[in-house]
């Protein structure tokens, strides 16, 4: 079987590609290594996706996208794409379990993964107080004091969400101002449960069996202090999921795929969309927009 389009990754960009591609009657397969939804599957409330005036739960939005793609005829399989042959007219995707799939076009929508801080104790206390997902782990910290690290949209949004559970949220950022959207900053500064600590980094996470404290350093004064907390949530940026491409596509210095505005990559018939590509705004709405363009470009390529 040779598919018209194989899509790698079932986040919002991949699922939008799937909706457009299967609706255009292209034989479409979407390969997802975990569960469909990607980053939105772990997001409590998406406030800025058009059409949902009260916001929408990320998992619910993901389920709606998957149902829509399935209704148009997209096939979904669960597996991790680990290598590719992209240069031939018929392209090959190889999964971790050695299964192979063929297609005339490939759309890479593998998104990005959270970055780790690489500090002492981080790895040791994952699941014992260290988390990268507020929606998944927030309820474990009911009436506890926690730390959130980061200064972007995700960090502020998740700090606000965590006030539903924690008695106090210490929001730690290494600079003296946030880079998050102003509306989020206003909410954070108004929220009494959030204690903002600027100009500071967490140097160490420690405890006996579970996380008990963090060591803070003020980078302006070099003062070291200890904070007794039960949880640390880390939101300090993203790494593109492009390792498996083995440098077959042109990437930028940070490893994001370089595309043009039609989502063409450096290889004909291979497209990229969403957070995995070099762009300025990584959001659900831009991922969906990219996904639609990638599917449309794949369609034009096939018609040629
Ligand atoms: C906590 C948090 C809050 C956010 N809040 C908002 C918000 O309020 N509004 C907003 O617009 N955006 C928000 N975002 C950002 C938004 O979720 C992303 O921009 C969007 O999900 C990007 O979609 P994507 O499809 O490009 O990638 P992703 O969502 O990263 O999906 C990529 C998918 O590809 C899969 N994959 C990766 N590698 C492989 C492989 N080798 N084989 C098979 N599958 C693979 C992954 O498992 C994943 O499911 C938030 C993100 C986070 C983490």
How would you describe this protein?
- Strands 1, 2, 3, 4, 5, 6 and 17 form a seven-stranded mixed sheet that branches. A five-stranded parallel sheet has the order 8-15-9-10-11.
- The chain starts with a strand and ends with a helix.
- The radius of gyration is 21 Å and the shape is elongated.
- 23% of the residues lie in helices and 28% in strands.
- By secondary structure, it is α/β, with parallel strands linked by helices.
- The model has no long low-confidence stretch (mean pLDDT 96).
- It folds into two domains: 2-114 and 238-303, FAD/NAD(P)-binding domain (3-Layer(bba) Sandwich), CATH 3.50.50; 130-234, FAD/NAD(P)-binding domain (3-Layer(bba) Sandwich).
- The chain has six helices and 17 strands.
- The site of flavin-adenine dinucleotide (FAD) has 38 residues, from α1, β2, α4 and α6.
């Amino acid at each position: 079987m040779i598919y018209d389009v194989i899509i790698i990754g079932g986040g919002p960009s991949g699922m939008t590609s799937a909706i457009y591609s299967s609706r255009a009657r292209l034989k479409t397969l979407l390969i997802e290594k975990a569960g469909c939804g990607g980053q939105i599957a772990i997001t409590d409330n998406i406030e800025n996706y058009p059409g949902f005036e009260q916001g929408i739960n990320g998992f619910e939005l993901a389920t709606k996208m998957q149902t829509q793609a399935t209704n148009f005829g997209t096939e979904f399989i669960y597996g991790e794409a680990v290598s590719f042959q992209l240069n031939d007219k018929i392209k090959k995707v190889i999964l971790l379990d050695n299964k192979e799939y063929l297609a005339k076009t490939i759309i890479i929508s593998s998104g990005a993964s959270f970055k780790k801080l690489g500090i002492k104790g981080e790895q040791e206390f994952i699941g014992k107080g260290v988390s990268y997902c507020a929606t998944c782990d927030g309820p474990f910290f009911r009436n506890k004091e926690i730390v959130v690290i980061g200064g972007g949209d995700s960090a502020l949004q998740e700090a606000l969400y965590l006030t539903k559970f924690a008695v106090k949220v210490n929001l730690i950022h290494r600079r003296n101002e946030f880079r998050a959207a102003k509306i989020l900053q206003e909410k954070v500064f108004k929220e009494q449960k959030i204690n903002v600590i600027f100009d500071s980094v967490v140097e160490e996470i420690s405890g006996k069996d579970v996380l008990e404290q963090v060591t803070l350093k003020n980078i302006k004064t070099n003062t070291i202090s200890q904070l007794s907390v039960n949880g640390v949530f880390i939101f300090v940026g993203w790494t593109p999921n492009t390792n498996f491409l083995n440098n077959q596509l042109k990437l930028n210095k940070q490893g994001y795929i370089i595309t043009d505005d039609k989502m063409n990559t450096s290889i004909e018939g291979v497209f990229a969309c969403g957070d995995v590509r070099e762009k300025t705004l990584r959001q659900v709405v831009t991922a969906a927009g990219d996904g639609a363009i990638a599917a449309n470009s794949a369609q034009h390529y096939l018609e040629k």
